[in-house]
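User: Could you go from structure to sequence for me? I need the amino acid at each position, not a summary. Structure tokens:
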């Protein structure tokens, strides 16, 4: 809910009427030119008003979530309240109170459902491969496959989802990192008993191992130019996750290889973002 709406709606209405008038004045080139100039000035005012209001403190109210079923119940509650006032009947008052209790109970349940849970998330965001590690206390870590990730693109897509879950600002991890909860070393992420190997270059291409390293997820991103069976000789995994950053021809080749060799895989560009509860 933004303060800008109070001013923008008026200006937008005037601009729309001006645009219609500009179209009607098509046969009159001179008058149409004047009207076009007026519409241009109004658009400049609109942009200036939006920029000015956005700089004001408390100009917007964020993190206010209304679920779809609540919108329906709000309308039902308004109708019941109006009927209760006009009829002065006890049954109407009881129905109004029951609707209010149902609305409050449903909101509390949905907020409980949206609470932070221990999980690993892989996002369907092209050009920004990352693993989001979430803790039950609201802390989280964004472990990026690239050392210079496009954080703005990822935040633009997923930040509202994070706010809805009441997560704290995620900590960005772009290099080797370790604390009491998470470890990220040599592109292998360990979190809450799960391991993710992030493959975004050819460092594993010519390696060998006497015994495969056990990981849960093999996260294949743009930058790897080898075959999946080469990685299968180095890692024992349960699921291959194909990131949306992979070119379409490479995704098709990897999917075909997975089907041929019986690897379980998830293509984020097809399935969308995935979250695994821990």
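Assistant: Here is the amino acid at each position, in order:
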């Amino acid at each position: 809910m933004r303060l800008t709406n109070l001013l923008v709606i008026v200006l937008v209405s005037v601009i729309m009427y001006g645009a219609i008038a500009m179209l009607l004045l098509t046969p009159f080139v001179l008058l149409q030119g004047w009207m076009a100039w007026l519409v241009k000035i109004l658009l400049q005012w609109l942009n200036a008003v939006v920029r000015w209001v956005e700089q004001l403190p408390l100009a917007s109210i964020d993190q206010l979530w209304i679920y779809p079923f609540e919108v329906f119940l709000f309308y039902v509650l308004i109708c019941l309240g109006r009927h209760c006032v006009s009829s002065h009947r006890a049954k109407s008052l009881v129905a109004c109170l029951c609707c209010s209790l149902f609305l409050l109970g449903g909101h509390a349940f949905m907020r409980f459902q949206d609470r932070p849970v221990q999980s690993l998330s892989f996002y369907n965001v092209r050009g920004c491969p990352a693993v989001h590690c979430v803790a039950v206390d609201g802390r989280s870590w964004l472990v990026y496959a690239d050392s210079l990730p496009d954080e703005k693109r990822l935040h633009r897509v997923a930040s509202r989802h994070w706010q809805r879950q009441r997560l704290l600002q995620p900590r960005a991890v772009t290099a080797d990192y370790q604390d009491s909860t998470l470890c990220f070393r040599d592109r292998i992420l360990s979190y809450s008993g799960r391991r993710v190997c992030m493959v975004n270059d050819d460092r594993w291409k010519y390696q060998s191992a006497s015994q495969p390293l056990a990981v849960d997820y093999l996260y294949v991103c743009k930058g790897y130019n080898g075959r999946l069976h080469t990685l299968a000789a180095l890692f024992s995994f349960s699921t291959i996750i194909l990131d949306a950053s992979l070119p379409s021809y490479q995704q098709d080749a990897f999917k075909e290889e997975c089907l041929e060799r019986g690897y379980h895989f998830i293509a984020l560009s097809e399935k969308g973002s995935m979250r695994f509860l821990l």
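One structural detail worth keeping in mind: The chain is about 45% helix and 20% strand.
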